[in-house]
Amino acid sequence: MAETASDRPVVAAALGGFTPDVFARHLESAPSWWHERKRAAYSRFEALPMPGRTDESWRFSNLSGIRIDGFTPDAAPPAGTAAASAAFSLAAPPMLTFVNGRLASRGELPAHLAAKGVVVSTLSEAAARSPELLREHFMAQPQKLGSAKFAALHEAFIADGAFVHVPRGVEVDMPIVLIHSASGAGTAVFPHTLIIAEDNSKVTVVDHFHSNDTLGQFACGANDLYAGHGARITYAAAQCWSLETLSFQFNSTVVRRDARVQSLNLHLGARQARHESLSQLQAPGGFSEMLALTVASGAREFDQRTLQIHQAPNTKSDLLYKNVLLDRSRTIFSGLIIVDPDAQKTDAYQSNRNLMLSEDAESNSLPGLEIQANDVRCTHGATSSPIDADQAFYLKSRGIPEKAANELLIFGFFEEVLCRLENEELHAALRDLVRTRLGR
Amino acid sequence: MSSLEIKNLHVSTGDKEIVKGVTLTINSGEIHAVMGPNGTGKSTMAKAIAGHPDYVITQGDVLIDGKSILEKESDERAREGIFLAFQYPSEIPGVSIANFMRAALQARMAEGEEIDASAYYKRLYQKMDLLKIDRKFTSRSVNEGFSGGEKKRSEILQMALLEPKFALMDETDSGLDIDALRIVSDGVNSLRGPNLGILLITHYQRLLSYIVPDHVHVMIEGRIVKSGDKSLALELESRGYDWVKQELATA
Question: Is ipTM > 0.90 here?
Answer without folding.
Answer: yes
